[in-house]
Amino acid sequence: MDKLDNPDNQDKQIQEEQVKLDKLDKLQLYTELYDFYGPVLTEKQNICFSMHYLEDMSFSEIGTVLGVTPQAIADQLRRTIGILQNYEDKLGFIKSHHERQTKIGKIIKLLMEVQ
Question: For 65-75, what is each residue's pLDDT tens digit?
């Protein structure tokens, strides 16, 4: 029996793929939050976010560069994500942007049908 034919292996593979998708979804969400609300962050928050999420550096690597512990970086990023999410919860710029993009897509589709 091939590894892929085994239901347990299939379940494990599906779970691993879901974890990868979840990570990609989170990365997309975090970078979108950063695109909209990044300018309100402090310099230190911007540096940590950029190094980890945009330059793909580990907590240890960032800690070494900044002279702090990996745990301090993890804590900083957790607070930074919280701040970004809080701005979105209160202001809703990303939600509004998505709604506008959906409406624009529908308008374009209707215009293409008219032509």
Answer: 999 999 999 99
Interior angle at CA 76, CA 70 and CA 80, nearest 5: 145
Residues 84, 52: Cα–Cα separation, whole Å? 15
pTM score of the predicted model: 0.73
What CATH number is given to the structural domain containing 43? 1.10.10.10
Residue 55 amino acid letter: E
pLDDT at 38 over 70: yes
The two three-digit tokens of residue 9, written as one number: 């292996």
Exposed/middle/buried for 49, CB within 10 Å: 0-12, 13-18, 19+?
A: buried
Number of domains composing the chain = 1
Rg from Cα positions in the chain: 20
**Amino acid letter, 76:** Q
Longest dimension (CA), the chain: 61
Q: Which helix (H) or strand (E) holds 104?
A: helix 93-114
